[in-house]
Amino acid sequence: MNNIRELSKDESSGMTIIVKTISRLVLSFILLFGFYIILYGHITPGGGFAGGVILSISYVLLMLAFGSKVALAKLSNFWASMLDNLGALAFIVIGFLGLTGGYFMTNFIWHGHPGQLISAGIIPLCNIAIAIKVSAALYAIFIGLSIYGRIVTEEEK
Amino acid sequence: MNALFHVLMLFMLIGAAVAIETKNMLSSVIAAGAVGFGVSLMFLFLGAPDIAITQVIVEVLSLIILIRATTFADNRAIERKMDSFSTVTGLIFIGFLVMAAVWAFQDLTPFGEPLMRVSRRYLSGTAVETGAVNAVSGIILDYRAYDTLGEAIVLFTSILSAFVILRRRGKKDIEAEDTEEFGILEQEQL
Lengths: 157, 190
Hints:
A: mainly alpha; B: 2 domains
């Protein structure tokens, strides 16, 4: 963590101090809103995909404002790819666990009372799995398109 | 309400035309983003907040990625004059498309009055059968979870292939660098 703090104070990388200050203030709220959208996906509008994209946007903002070193120190491209795989695997594992209730993707957990946070069986779990998968995947795409692409342009120039 | 939809549609059509016709790549990307925001407003006023949220967020992310991509690329628009043959064939195909669309859309139900055969059961049964108050979540993760699995697999595969294609150095290159560094000769050199 100390390393990240030092990296984020490096003024040569990333955008101006105005953008950095605003990002410091806003980033945690974006993350919080993403978690809210994911966890309340079965009660209010939203869900795993939308919340996952919000989480990935917070990482994209981190990368744009503070430079790629800080963002990659938080979540490296290896771990982004790994979380992408783990999220997809978790979704399929939940689907196969549904076989205990009869068939693939059964809602096998007790449904609870509609409207409460812990209800609706596997739907919140699926939302979380999809959110991990989507957030890591879109962040990985941004890494791939910005960092790898920039190396290519510098080499060609 | 209908007038609002017509204004939004006109806005989206103008945005799409600007996105195609403008010479500057950056303004083209921004015009495409305007079309996306028009779509999300449309979904919001049609009463689909789930899709509106997803649309507006994905639009923001894709706009960031596209702007990032276009600022590094050379912004020359491809100049190509339409010859008469391609214009005529294009017009003929547009005519066919309009005719087929008019023929096909006659059987459609009026705007805002869907057929509601399967969906009626979904809407009435979601809260009881799945326990989810948000009907959209109940449908996509319980009734139609298999569809969502397919969607997740599509995203997974596309991102895997994007990583493979965008990666500049393959594993073979790293091995070749090692042989250079440590002086291990390859089979052919021996």
